[in-house]
Amino acid sequence: MNNIVAIVGRPNVGKSTFFNRLIQRREAIVDSVSGVTRDRNYGKSEWNGKEFSVIDTGGYIKGSDDIFEAEIRKQVELAIDEADAIVFLVDVEEGITPMDNEVAKLLRKVTKPVLLVVNKVDNAKREQDAFEFYNLGLGEYVTMSGMSGSGTGEVLDKIVEILPELPEVEEATEELPRFAVVGRPNAGKSSFINALIGEDRFVVTDIAGTTRDAIDTKYNRFGFEFNLVDTAGIRRKAKVKEDLEFYSVMRSVRAIEHSDVCILVIDATRGFEGQDQSIFWLAEKNRKGIVILVNKWDLVEKDTMTTVQYEKKIREEIAPFTDVPILFVSALTKQRLLKALETAVEVYENRKQRIATSKFNDTMLPIIEHNPPPAIKGKYIKIKYCMQLPTPVPQFVFFANLPQYIKDPYKRYVENKLREIYNFEGVPIEIYFRQK
Ligand code: GDP
Ligand code: GDP
Q: What does this protein do, in the record's words (predicted)?
């Protein structure tokens, strides 16, 4: 589980420029695998061997010039609640603005670590101009030019320095699946959980999670033992009324990162929308198992909207990762709740499975031989050996003489074949081609 760093600040100070720089190296790796960029506001970064998640809070508001101050204020408040550390970006070109003062006022009250970063310090003169930011009352600041990259190393040093020490993950003495129930506000998450587990009667133990905010609660229902990941924040706070993407994403990040399988609850009467998609890709990006529950199915006119049509539409939205179970449920009438739980357990098992190397070669090599990667510039590409890596998340490596010539379509072909033969339903997998 990672620390979460939120980048806050008013529009145009350079948040997204800096964010992109932070996640660049890792994203490059991910993108070469999936071929698609997903969420441009959430990513993972690494510095000096420490990994952390980054959220660009500004990325969730569109039309940056006419945002209400109140909106930014809410974002900062939520970032303060949900993140482990806050990077407050200001702009030396503009100097201190009233909005900067507002944000500083909120941040001065915070006990979580805050790093003040003066951006756009592109030259030595601006280094002098930065002095005025002492007036924000947040103490020391660091300067950088997010655009050229100068000073960003020092900023990263500081970020890593202020991140709270994460307690050792109590590697579950007994291996129980960790499920996170996620989704937009009002999709029916709490109703689903209540319908499934009732009035806390089935609580076995309450284990404090790995950070102060993540709680695993162990349950035993219908013969299945599992942990539900909840964030204390969700329980503690008044229900969020606003239906902003930012809220559901921010609130889901920690639970998703902490889980094995995400149960994504969507509202059947609204369909699979932008927010649902963001949360889906958040789970996929974290390589978590996924089950989609189309909830409130009791409200849908069945003759106008069949499950087949509905399912097809969702699969179009989540392509190319379509090998995901989709169930039509109702938390209200308790329709198919047991099936939902069963499916989540199955996805957990799928994600955990390990394929013996000899069997894997015996199965995959003939398929590859039958349909090898296309030759490039007269060179034949040969794959001689393959294996599943001993990683917690399914990863497969195929050793080839010229791996650099194997393109994405072939990778997808291999993934599809692999999914046809083995059951990885609901599980993101990674495939690499490497030099033998
Ligand atoms: P955001 O709204 O806070 O996410 O800001 P952006 O990252 O979109 O940047 C706003 C503008 O400032 C863009 O035109 C960037 O090119 C520019 N910018 C970002 N970082 C720097 C920097 O270090 N120096 C200068 N001179 N411009 C920058
Ligand atoms: P959450 O914000 O995702 O936790 O959503 P809630 O569980 O609070 O549900 C939001 C609203 O939808 C409440 O009024 C629920 O009673 C209602 N609701 C939840 N599940 C269902 C369902 O399966 N069918 C119907 N008809 N209403 C539901």
A: GTPase that plays an essential role in the late steps of ribosome biogenesis.
Amino acid at position 421, single letter: I
Give yes or no for residue 43 CB within 6 A of ligand 1: no
The answer to whether the CB of 189 is under 6 A from ligand 2 is yes
| pTM for the model | 0.76
Ligand 2 and 340: CB distance under 6 A:
no
ipTM: 0.79
119 in ligand 1 pocket by Cβ < 6 Å?
yes
357-435 maps to CATH 3.30.300.20:
yes
Count of C-beta atoms within a 10 Å radius of residue 202: 13
Question: Is 65 annotated as a binding-site member?
Answer: no
Give yes or no for residue 188 CB within 6 A of ligand 1: no
CATH architecture of the domain formed by 3-162? 3-Layer(aba) Sandwich (3.40)
Closest protein CA for atom 18 of ligand 1: 14
Was 260 annotated as part of a binding site? no
Q: How many residues does the chain have?
A: 436
Do 226 and 219 form a contact (C-beta atoms < 8 A)? yes
What residue segments make up the domains of the chain, in order of their start? 3-162, 178-352, 357-435
Task: Judge whether 31 is annotated as a binding position.
Answer: no
| Alpha helices, H only, 259-356 | 274-285, 307-318, 337-352
**Span from the CA of 247 to the centroid of ligand 1 (angstroms):** 24
Ligand having the closest approach to the CA of 17: 1
Q: At the topology level of CATH, where does 178-352 sit?
A: Rossmann fold (3.40.50)
Instruction: Dihedral sign for Cα 174, 177, 27, 402, please.
Output: positive
- Bridge-based pairing of strands 326-328 and 289-295 is parallel
- Do the domains 3-162 and 178-352 sit in the same CATH topology, yes or no? yes
d(CA 430, CA 415): 8
